[in-house]
Amino acid sequence: MEAKVVQSLQWSTLNSSENIMRRPSSSLRYTKRFNGNDQRHHQTLASCHLGFGKGVIGQRSVVLKVSCSSQNVSASVLESGSVPTSSDEAVILKKKSEDIEPYLDGRCIYLVGMMGSGKTTVGRILSETLGYSFFDCDTLIEQAVGGTTVAEIFKLYGECFFRDNETEIIRKLSSMQRLVVSTGGGAVVRPINWKYMHKGISVWLDVPLEALARRIAKVGTDSRPLLHGESGDAYTKALERLSTLLEDRGEAYANASARVSLENIAAKLGCKDVCNLTPTAIAIEALVQIEKFLKK
Ligand SMILES: Nc1ncnc2c1ncn2[C@@H]1O[C@H](COP(=O)(O)OP(=O)(O)OP(=O)(O)O)[C@@H](O)[C@H]1O
Ligand SMILES: O=C(O)C1=C[C@@H](O)[C@@H](O)[C@H](O)C1
């Protein structure tokens, strides 16, 4: 049977007294000078405000269908003692998050992984269950650059400019508490970003390339500038480009505090195809791996 988990990622999350007390400010003034190639942009960006709650979390509800793999979910991983249904997944998720919350002690969780690995999807589930606020670095950069899309930022100002902004966003987020942060796929390449992310707990969503390419081919590569330029069908293009990127970055992802391997989850659950793993099952495994790290 199919069930629905409603993710209420609403402004109220940020407005809870606990969050207000722990967060240094509700918006961040952006002061960094950029190194891009369009000098006219200096003024605009330097005076830009990052209205965190407003643009990213504000009044948004996401409905995720939890279906498929419920039948295949094994007790060992989900720790339920029986074959869970979708609603069991929600219960297990809640239980696990309550178990680890005290150990987290307010530390932020940074999700790292390739484009399309599910950082946003899984990150929203984690933030909701932990009562944390959710932020997506790419969205924050877009807001900082006046609503320009990531693809346009790459085109107009170049990758280096984008990466400088990314580092600045991560630096600022790292001074806060109780956040789940979906980082950009390439955030792992700059060692300075790790310095900030290691203030909290980083989780690598390790998804096989074929699954990534399938997901990306489904939605297209328009919003992902580093996948532009190859010829061929969307799946082949994505697969080729992602393979090269992963070769360059594999070791960087391994810096993360915890690794969530979809292949491992599928093996444990007796699920043949990683594409059948629900975001909730992946979020549960993320909590299991975070717990292992915290209790080391
Ligand atoms: N477990 C899953 N099963 C099937 N599809 C998924 C799953 N998780 C995410 N997706 C889909 O894959 C796509 C990419 O997911 P998402 O945006 O969460 O990834 P991301 O890591 O944040 O990507 P990016 O870094 O490019 O922003 C979306 O279309 C999403 O709906
Ligand atoms: O993998 C990458 O380098 C990127 C991933 C996206 O999230 C964006 O941050 C941008 O498209 C770059």
From TrEMBL:
Gene Ontology CC: chloroplast; cytosol
EC class of the enzyme, as a word: transferase
Reactions listed under catalytic activity: shikimate + ATP = 3-phosphoshikimate + ADP + H(+)
Protein name as it appears in the record: shikimate kinase
Function: Catalyzes the specific phosphorylation of the 3-hydroxyl group of shikimic acid using ATP as a cosubstrate.
Record EC number: 2.7.1.71
Pathway(s) served: Metabolic intermediate biosynthesis; chorismate biosynthesis; chorismate from D-erythrose 4-phosphate and phosphoenolpyruvate: step 5/7
Name of encoding gene: LOC113701223
